[in-house]
Amino acid sequence: MAKQKVVIITHTADNICIDTVSRFVHEAGGEAIRFNVDTYPLHTRLSSIYQQQQQHIFLENETGAHTLHDAAGIWYRRSYNVGKGLQDALDKEFRQAAMQETKRTLFGMMEALDIFQMERFSVYRRLESKEEQLRIAVACGLKVPATCISNDAAAIRRFIDTVNAPVITKMQSSFAIYREGIEHVVFTNAVDENHLQELESVQYCPMVFQERIGKQLELRVTIVGYEVFAFSINSAVSERAATDWRKEGAALIQSWEPYRLPDEVQQKLLTFMDRYGLNYGAIDLILTPDNQYYFLEVNAAGEYFWLDELCDNAISRQIAQVLMGKAAHRGA
Fold first, then answer.
1. Residue ranges per domain, the chain?
2. Closest CA to 134 of 243, 272, 277
3. pLDDT category, 306, cuts 50, 70, 90?
4. Which of 44, 235, 309, 321 is a plausible cystine mate for 40, CB 3.0–4.6 Å?
């Protein structure tokens, strides 16, 4: 009898969580197929064939030849550096077309697979709308900070005046700016008088302005299927991390602790996941000094590896179980 197969879409530089989930898949009697998209198309072959009214998808990579259409599940974890090396392999006039076709083929293949997926590419694209996330969170009974996303300086000033409280600013996407070869990651920052004087520059790039919520704790809640794994950190232990704990992420990695969410909040988060049909989500919450919970965002590819160590790899174990259909999940 053939082993149950699980496909993991990732890249060669991903962290230890891939090996950990793969180990649990193997221990459960399954096979984990790792598809490093940064090796595609130069070092990986991918074929999608429709014949006799049936779909077949084949992958040939460094581990051998694999069929994907008969897998138990697929984990779309990362798609970094698709088409790596094409810029050196092709003449300049062909590069853009080759990259476009490569990405369309990869993402089209994933969307077309008629198997359980965590998550579909289209769901990732939908989650890029932070506006919809906030709307659905409110519809599920969660509190959200007052928020303005705009490139209109006048509208932003009116928003700040109306909030009548400290405001933070951030970008919707995660990225870094490279200046003189040095990477500068864009974090969340408090809005001060200097920012207000330079506000007209938002005309060139819209930004998120949000009421700064007082923090008792910051929470990272990882939901896999219907299992909830909550952890907390007191980011106030570091002045640099008080606005955004990621500024001192490595230094604070040992400061996280397991956290028990109130049943009511946990149920609202599960309802939120139901609305999107999500089976994996890394959710950021704030617990205020007066014990109110505020939803910030969900990331369907959010990191969890350092939290996994605090729960004896229970998150990775649950991911493997969901992918193999051995644990309850949303969708087919």
1. 5-118, 146-211, 214-323
2. 272
3. very high
4. 44
